[in-house]
Write a structure and sequence with these properties.
The structure is a single chain. Helix content is about 20%, strand content about 45%. With about 190 residues, the protein is α+β, with helices and mostly antiparallel strands. The protein is globular, with a radius of gyration of 23 Å.
Length: about 190
């Protein structure tokens, strides 16, 4: 009896795929012994996204706090939704001994004529930044706080392939640096150990 049910099960699966186009069923059928899917094509980026594409990659970060403490982390920037958004993921060890994690999504918003960045952390409400490229190789996002002060992050592309990030805050007229971070490509780190 089991032998006679297998062809029926196969017909049902094929019928379901034909009727629904269900990706879960197609995936189940194509993963057994099938070659790996082709690599994802590089998206065609708008000129605004090209201006911040220097951030894309896998990075090892070293952050320095104003009190001199440092922390290491791992950071990833990649295009998602065919280049419409840049996804950011960060994991590190905070000097206070706690896990340091942040996620963000950013894009060019043509209606606003500015970049927008949504930043998410477990211990805070989502933050909505607006951004610009004031000069080639510099990407800046900023937000106005409830007290009228501003804070932001400047990302500087360096000629050696690294990125320098400077977090800052302005209360009144004084601009205060709250964090300095250097990004080194993961490949560079892997090569340093050999």
């Amino acid at each position: 009896m089991k032998r006679s049910l297998l062809p029926l099960l196969g017909v049902l699966l094929l019928s379901a795929v034909g009727l629904t186009g269900g990706p879960a069923l197609v995936t189940a059928q194509t993963t057994a012994g099938a070659p790996a899917p082709p690599p994802i094509a590089t998206p065609t980026l708008s000129p605004e996204h090209e201006a911040i594409a220097f951030l894309v990659g896998e990075w090892i970060t070293t952050s320095e706090f104003p009190d001199g403490r440092t922390a290491e982390g791992r950071l990833s920037y990649r295009w998602v939704f065919d280049g419409a958004w840049m996804k950011v993921e960060f994991h590190g060890d905070h000097p206070d001994g706690r896990l340091w994690e942040a996620h963000a999504m950013q894009r060019w918003d043509p209606e606003a004529g500015a970049y927008e960045s949504w930043s998410f952390r477990a211990d805070d409400v989502p933050l909505h930044y607006r951004g610009s490229v004031p000069e080639p190789g510099l990407y800046r996002i900023e937000i106005e706080g409830p007290d009228g002060g501003r804070s932001g992050i400047d990302y500087h592309r360096r000629d050696d392939g690294t990125v320098y990030q400077e977090n800052w805050a302005i209360n009144g007229v004084e601009r205060r640096i709250t964090l300095r971070t250097t990004y080194r490509p993961v490949e560079e780190e892997a090569g340093a150990g050999t």
